[in-house]
Amino acid sequence: MTDKKHKNIFVQGAVSSAFIADSIQKHSTKTTIGAHSIFLGQVRSDIINNRKVVAIDYTTYEELALEKMHEIREGIFAKYPLTCMHIYHSLGIVVAGEMCLFVFTSAVHRKEAIDACEEVVELIKKELPIWGKEIFEDDTHQWKENKL
User: Fold this and answer.
1) Domain of residue 112, residue span
2) What is the spatial distance between Cα 130 and Cα 92, in angstroms, rounded to a whole number?
3) Is the CB of residue 148 less than 8 Å from the CB of residue 128?
4) φ and ψ of 22, to 5 deg
5) Angle 116-121-123 (CA atoms, 0-180°, nearest 5)?
6) 1 lies in a domain?
7) What is the rounded average pLDDT of the residues 3-13?
């Protein structure tokens, strides 16, 4: 690990729709951007072994996750001609129906924005040390299995 402070991607609780809208609005003055691609991850109310998921409690090893996210960001910026990229992931409890991941990429052209956004989401799911504990309606819980 380095002593360099990396951009914090974590927010406590759900990523609010107001935050998402504000993030999009802030880009309206950046007139060299021709395309944005947005991925929103939402907590599902899955039924697992006849129990309904009502929330997910996200946790991470933050220092390691931020270091890895920095590596992912650098790799994506080296691969795609992006104007900007923003990533926010929830920590703590997020109830079913709320947003837990917000990835926002911008570029001059749509293909670069879309491809970069998709790749970032896949790398986050595959490589970041973020764990979710599914909370069921009967107050029991279990660690979530990530499906790539």
Assistant:
1) 10-140
2) 11
3) no
4) -65, -40
5) 95
6) no
7) 85
> CA–CA distance from 70 to each of 6, 101, 112 (Å)?
6, 17, 19
Query: If pLDDT is split at 50, 70 and 90, which confidence band does 4 have?
Result: low
**pLDDT (tens digit, 9 = 90+) per residue, 31-74?**
999 999 999 999 999 999 999 999 999 999 999 999 999 999 99
Write out the two tokens for 68: 């890895």
Q: Is residue 3 part of a domain?
A: no
Question: Among 77, 86, 2, 72, which Cα is nearest to 37's?
Answer: 86
Residue 146: predicted pLDDT: 67
DSSP string computed for 72-105: HHHHHHHHS-EEEEEEEEEEEEEETTSEEEEEEE
Task: Give me the CATH number covering residue 14.
Answer: 3.90.1170.40
**Is residue 4 one of the residues assigned to a domain?**
no
Say which residue the tokens 């380095």 belong to. 2
